[in-house]
């Protein structure tokens, strides 16, 4: 058995029976096999045995059981430069084997970082296999193509769907978000039908890992004009993202404009018990309202018949007599008017006042 190992690492890359090679040209057939199986261009492969370079077919004959050390060349054996096609193939090869310094050198000598081999660019392959160190080398070397993404236009919105980063964040494509951040995508650029930010849409859709990535990259937690990430997470009941935002320093009592509501009142209105519990545990005020005609937390929960949430708010000190909402009414009144008997009982048991 012939064992092919990396000369630098000593790790075994492949093995093949000597009898499977062309007995008349074993060295050439071995290189052809390496190209077919591993994408190693013949012109880049140098094989060593016992510290001697194998250059003639006769040198490989008779080696039925041996270790061969493989070296990847970054120029032709005679010192000639690679052709543009050879450079592109070599770049793919070096990236596949994570020969980062050699890949950098090849890029500095003019290799096309977007050379396509079997339809793929080096970035396509590195991204597919999550080789982030290779991705960074290629980006630093000027690579601009990943699939249908042209990094020259990374921050444009080619359609109403939004920028590439916005769409990746919305759809939960964590690896693509990571790549686009590495490539310099505008982290706070608002786009899409609802003119939201990547963090806003990630929070709205419950993509925790993406929200964490964006926050670590410096995304704005307090985006104005209705696209506040905390508001969206509370509205849709994503308690894990609410916790992430609070731990990142987001104001638990912030006023969302133009809606004039708080995180707690939005969670109460939507009936998201876990979010309400979390906000109260983190010290959110159960009595904060932004304007007298806007609903407070207890009013919102009473109006929509959320008995469990009403009880939570009462235990946390919510005022039973706070008149608010469009009709400047109290929680007991609105619960009674809407026929929420369980809520009425809770409020009456708490000695809520009822105006005549």
UniProtKB/TrEMBL annotation:
Pfam families on file: Ank_2 (PF12796)
SUPFAM superfamilies assigned: Ankyrin repeat (SSF48403)
Keyword entries, A-Z: ANK repeat
ANK repeats: 118-143, 160-192, 194-220, 225-257, 259-287
Keyword rRNA-binding (UniProt): no
Record-linked SMART domains: ANK (SM00248)
Protein name listed in UniProt: Ank1 protein
């Amino acid at each position: 058995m012939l064992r092919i190992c990396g000369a630098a690492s000593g790790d075994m890359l492949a093995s093949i029976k000597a009898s499977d090679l062309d007995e008349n040209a074993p060295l050439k057939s071995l290189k052809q096999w390496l190209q077919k199986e591993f994408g190693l261009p013949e012109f880049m492969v140098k094989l060593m045995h016992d510290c001697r370079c194998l250059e003639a077919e006769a040198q490989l004959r008779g080696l039925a059981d041996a270790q061969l050390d493989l070296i990847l060349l970054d120029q032709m054996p005679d010192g000639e430069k690679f052709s543009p096609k050879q450079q592109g193939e070599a770049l793919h090869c070096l990236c596949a084997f994570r020969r980062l310094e050699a890949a950098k050198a090849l890029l500095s000598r003019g290799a096309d970082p977007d050379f396509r081999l079997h339809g793929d660019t080096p970035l396509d392959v590195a991204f597919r296999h999550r080789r982030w160190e290779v991705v960074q080398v290629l980006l630093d070397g000027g690579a601009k193509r990943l699939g249908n993404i042209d990094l020259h236009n990374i921050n444009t919105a080619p359609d109403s769907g939004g920028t590439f980063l916005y769409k990746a964040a919305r759809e939960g494509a964590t690896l693509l978000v990571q790549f686009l951040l590495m490539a310099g995508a505008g982290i706070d650029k608002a786009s899409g039908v609802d003119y939201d930010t990547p963090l806003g849409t990630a929070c709205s859709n419950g993509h925790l890992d993406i929200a964490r990535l964006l926050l670590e990259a410096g995304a704005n937690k307090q985006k104005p004009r209705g696209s506040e990430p905390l508001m969206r997470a509370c509205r849709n009941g994503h308690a894990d993202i609410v916790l992430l935002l609070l731990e990142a320093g987001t104001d638990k009592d912030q006023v969302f404009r133009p809606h004039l509501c708080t995180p707690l009142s939005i969670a109460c209105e939507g009936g998201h018990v876990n979010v309400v519990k979390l906000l109260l545990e983190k010290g959110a005020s159960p009595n904060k309202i932004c304007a007298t005609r806007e609903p407070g937390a207890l009013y919102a929960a009473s109006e929509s018949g959320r008995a469990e949430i009403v009880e939570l708010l009462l235990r946390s000190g919510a005022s039973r007599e706070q008149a608010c909402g469009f009709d400047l009414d109290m929680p007991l009144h609105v619960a009674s008017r809407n026929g929420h008997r369980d809520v009425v009982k809770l409020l009456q048991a708490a000695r809520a006042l009822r105006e005549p």
